Amino acid sequence: MRLRQNNMEFKTISDIENPLFNRREIEGEIHTEVSPSRQEVAKLLSEKFSVPVENIKIRTIMGKFGSKVFIVGTNIYKSKEERDKVEIIKKKDAEAEKRREEEKKEKEKPSEPKIPAEQADEVKGEKSE
């Protein structure tokens, strides 16, 4: 199986189902001109295997000097809760997730209409003189 995205081509080497941890352990090759970031690899795998990015844990991205082939080791879990139970969450990852949740809350919060200061005082019952 090969999948191409932004000049990235993914080829599956091994795909093992691990029922003990409720995950799939996938190893594959990525052919690309530049070193792929973890976010790019997670997005590529989420599209290929039809799972949310939150359910993917990238273990390794290994490349050899001068080579355009990178070996990627990943775990794909059935749910985010399963991933959080099994995997160790690094401080950096926890902070990034916290920031994403805060951004979602800010987007969901409706913005209040802005009232000029004079009218705001009148609404409170104070009259400016």
Describe this structure in words.
By secondary structure, the protein is α+β, with helices and mostly antiparallel strands. The chain has one domain (2-109): 2-Layer Sandwich (Alpha-Beta Plaits). The protein is built from four helices and five strands. The chain has helices at 38-49, 80-86, 91-108, 117-124, and strands spanning 2-5, 8-18, 23-31, 56-63, 69-77. A five-stranded antiparallel sheet has the order 1-2-3-5-4. The model has no long low-confidence stretch (mean pLDDT 82).
Strand composition percent: 25-35%
How many β strands by DSSP? 5
Provide the CATH architecture: 2-Layer Sandwich
Total individual domains: 1
What composes the largest sheet? 5 strands, antiparallel
Q: Tell me, rounded to a whole number, the average pLDDT.
A: 82
Q: Helix tally?
A: 4
The secondary-structure class comes to alpha+beta
